[in-house]
Amino acid sequence: METIIVTGGAGYIGSHTIIELLQNTSYHIISIDNFSNSTKETFNRIEIITGKQVENLDIDICNLQELELAIKQIKNPIGIIHFAAYKSVGDSVLNPLAYYHNNITSLVNILSVCKTFHIPQFIFSSSCSVYGNVSELPVTENTAFSIAESPYAHTKQIGEDIVSNFAKSESFFNNVLLRYFNPVGAHQSGLNGELSKDKPSNLVPFITQSAIGILPPLTVFGDDYDTRDGSCIRDYIHVSDIADAHVKALNYLIEKKNSQQTSIFNLGTGNGVSVFECIHSFEKVSHQKLNYHIGKRRPGDVINIYANNTLAKSQLNWQPKYNLDDMMLSAWKWELNLKNNK
Ligand code: NAD
Ligand code: WQD
Predict the structure, then answer these.
(1) In a 3-state reduction of DSSP, which class is residue 333?
(2) What is the C-alpha separation between 95 and 85, in angstroms, rounded?
């Protein structure tokens, strides 16, 4: 049977992608995750949702020797979806070397095994942070990169170059670089969602954890921006829509629909949503008021960014299914589920 390897399969986006793969394809799925930002529990959640067990190889992908030994055992690996990376923007400013080491070394190693074991299909988790501060909206895949605002974002800019340069040297190798905007929400069952080991700094997990009493009231970082309500605007996209795009990107490569070895797609809904609109949506679907106050602007925040997603829609035949209320409701169901199962 053909195998798809998912690195970072115990993490937030990797686990949702495994669920979509198990429910919509017949590939054998193997995860590689060292649980640096996740736990084994994820695989129980995947099993409850899909009825299927997923094997995980607990390996640090930065260890090439262990990685090669593990991949050697896998029967017929035809593709790798590479999620594994550190992802905290703020932490990367404080610990840049950890981010350059983990995100770049793991990528070089995983490409090296693609070469050694002749694995022809590859999908890389990139990020809208590669664009930096943009001057044109919506952002298309051709929008020029500005200087990276953080070491994390820099690892994604470098990572994209590494993958596409590798592709130029290996004619068998085809890849998709997916630039996610702001993935949020949880599986619609509420049984799987975002659960980083550290305290969240992103808006949606902060809202739900604050509402449930784990975190203090939310601070809205600035209400005096030149936007429709003064707060910053982002393109929030449901994690299951992101996961679905990975299945479609994989099929796109396997069915040889790509016209070049490296294809790049923005993954966003195409809608800009403000911080206050997120709060109002959360209050509507959770039937409760959120305790928040207005604070100072967060240094480095982009004022307004959202995607032009027409390329992903037309080339991958992908269409985001979930709206902002769905994102907030699923995130809230997940938070309640975590509390009830403590
Ligand atoms: P996550 O932290 O939940 O998942 C990443 C997983 O990779 C974790 O389970 C972690 O244990 C594992 N991992 C990290 N380094 C590893 C290593 N060296 N060896 C083995 N396993 C390792 O993160 P996520 O939100 O699921 O993000 C997945 C990918 O998407 C990352 O590459 C991230 O940069 C990218 N991305 C995320 C967002 C977002 O907002 N979540 C946005 C854009 C891009
Ligand atoms: C969203 C909005 C904040 C927290 C980051 C990365 C990006 C990508 C997604 C990985 C902003 C406001 C937030 C709070 C607030 N990740 N906010 N109070 O900064 O758009 O993007 O995550 O690739 O690369 O940079 O996401 O969720 O932190 O912020 O007012 O307590 O919510 O100012 O306007 P961001 P975020």
Answers:
(1) helix
(2) 14
- DSSP structure class, residue 307: B
Rounded mean pLDDT for each run of 10 residues along the chain, 342 residues in total? 97 98 98 98 98 98 98 98 96 96 99 98 98 93 95 97 98 98 98 92 97 97 97 98 99 98 98 98 98 95 95 98 98 97 84
Instruction: Name the residue at shortest CA distance from atom 3 of ligand 2.
Output: 221
Active site residue 292: no
At 36, the amino acid letter reads: S
Q: Identify the nearest ligand to the CA of 290 by its number.
A: 2
pTM for the model: 0.98
The label of the residue with tokens 């309640």 reads 336
Distance, CA of 16 to CA of 177 (rounded, Å): 18
Residue type at 266 in one-letter notation: N
Say which of 27, 99, 152, 180 is annotated catalytic: 152
Alpha carbon separation from 65 to 17, 111, 163, 327 (Å, rounded)? 27, 14, 21, 40
The answer to whether the CB of 180 is under 6 A from ligand 1 is: yes
CB 32 within 8 A of CB 96: no
Question: 340: how many CB neighbours lie within 10 A of its CB?
Answer: 8
